[in-house]
Amino acid sequence: MAKGLCLNGRKRLSEGAEGPRKRRKADGSGPGRGPEVKSCHLSAALLGEDSEISQEQLYELLKYAALGKCHNAAQPSWCRIYHQSHLAGVVVVVLHEMSQLHFYRFYLQFKHLRKVFRHRFTLAPSANFLVSLYGEETNLKPQNTPQGLTSTSSECTTKSSDLQCDPIIQRYGEKKQGLTSYTLTLEEQKKNDYPIEGSPGCKDYISTECDQQRTDSSPLFGLDCEMCLTEKGNEVTRVSLVDARGRCLLNELVKPESRVFNYRTRFSGITRKMLLPVKTRLSDIQTRLKKMLPHDAVLVGHSLNSDLQALEMIHPSVIDTSLLFARSEGRRFKLKFLAKAVLGKEIQCEQKLGHDPTEDARAALELAQFFIEQGPTKVAELNLEMLLTAERLAEVSKNKAVQQPQGCGLQEQLNEPPPLSKPCFLDCLQVTGQTPLLLGRQGSDSSGLCQSNLSTSNKQILQKALEDVPLSKFSIIQFTLGPGYLASHLHAGLHEKVSSKLTDMLTIYAGPFEENFCIKSVKKEFGRCGPIQSLAVVTETFQPYVCIQYEVLEAAQLAVECLNGAEVAGSCIKVQRPVTAAMLDCNVLIKELELDVENQGVIYVAGLKKSLTETELQEEFGQLKHLEALFLPKDLQSGKHRSCCFLKFQKTQSALSALEAINGWTMKGSELRSRKALAPGHLWKWIWQMNHSSDNQGKHIFYEQMEQLSDSEQNLRKKVKKLDQNIKKLYRSLQNNSLCVVLFPGVNSTQGSQPGLGLMGIKDEGRSAC
Questions:
Q1: pLDDT one-digit tens code per residue, 59-69
Q2: Which of 100, 413, 453, 578 has its CA 20 to 30 A from that of 462?
């Protein structure tokens, strides 16, 4: 639908690890010798619905940027990198536990980010973001980092036959123990995002009521679910339960309660057609599970927290095989790898459409039984890390056979090597002789990245990055707001403030009108500015006013600009936004949104007839010079377009010329109105969902008591501003032709999920001074 954008750079001399060389002038004169390097640039179709990028798509982009075609890395379909081989380096900046919500709550504070990075996309949240970023099974060991900033584990992770250094032995000891020794403690469940009785996010969750004391003879049950993405988040579409003998007790399709956005058929195997005749709901499954599970049942699963969250159920005793087979630095093995390497079983085969939850539940159960029966020492002797490394090396070597010692798997009947897993591209970089740089905070977390101790500040991380990034082909730098600023209650407060401010910015008040004014005339006139979410008559005033909430920011701004002082329904009216504490900086925010680099060359057009198709609109607007893309927003429930569209032009001046031409146009008998875009293209879905949430329906604040910002948020503003300055310093230090990607990973927890945000660009001389 949308053509790509180009971020052009200038040619520069190649720069090596010793630092930048003197550049020649454009005509080739000046000091320094060597071949001129082609300018790299990006082309990305990121407008409207195409702006939502998955973790896998991001991984593909970074892999291609780091390795290129010569290492069999494919050019991603959603974003092209031209002249990849001439990239000076790739730098990924990760803002720990921050989401799209943080960026737009503190939009004015992120002055550098919003003015430099033209390409912006919404990122699907992940519980283990960095794991998904650089590969779940990566064996990355960054080097040359100082104490307090190192991302390597202890020396025990080096090649050694000493089992005392194995993470499994360090966690469980050498002796064989009963199953109760391997169930997660309450603290471990909290740390790994399991639903806990009494937690704020689990208020309406159902308990299995399995509260009997566990013993080493308690029965094990394997559980696995498939989920789809809905308005609510992750909802169950299929549930499987197996008993200790592997017999299937439950394998049921479940109809989601909310509208489905993505069935995730590739992974779940679930399609819309499969769920059409299904009557079973989540409450039915909850009731059946409560009846089926004995009071001392122990549930087993791989990353079981996700299944219980989707089931909205609380169970006190669990064994999580992704944690049971412990690895260093919080990393986790995939279920498919463990099933083959330990059990000799092939699961999740590529020939099948989606995963089989019964197969996965049975595999997790057998892995737990295997661990309990054999004990930690036997499992550690498998040397799973060595098998994994051997597989990756085999993959990098174009699948040449790697001879494994007989009996390297615990089951001696398994005479073939484990399957080749998808190699992490950072491991591939190390194999090719390049050393990735990983700087962050120490002490591993669920993301799999080793973080620095609490005394290591962003300032120290920045200083080390300024020194080491020029020496590395690929760098991941992680910053954080620090302890106390990422608490769930504070995040919930930020969401409430953003939602409230968005509602106010979408809302306008118009009047006064005569006592018996025509409401239809008012709705028609204001509807020409854009799609209306709700319209209500305000009767608390001496003369009637109307309160209108729009669906897009541009519509509300058009109404203020075009209809303030106009005659509507026989009255000369005033149009204004609500006057609240949060809206005092509204005009400043509107101005900055217009100047946002992502909005340059994009205009908003209202007054379209709903009968017009996208093809007809493309024909009508096709005469406009340098038109690059057209985005027609649609109602996410009905699928109907919303009588407005966004036009993207290759050049800013072409967009300004189009503005003059379109205002006053008549299309199919309807007069058009237009203005500069305010909301970046990737925000349409997010704004629509927030605008249609139950918290905002019918919410109109007529009088609001002025409130002071809390101390925590005031401090947070200062932290964010400093963070923006740190990224600015880092960006300025990069060589030209460096790809820089800034990531807000998003939040995915019991308190709810928020999408992440990605910003990217290739630095060049024309855009570096910011």
A1: 888 888 988 87
A2: 100
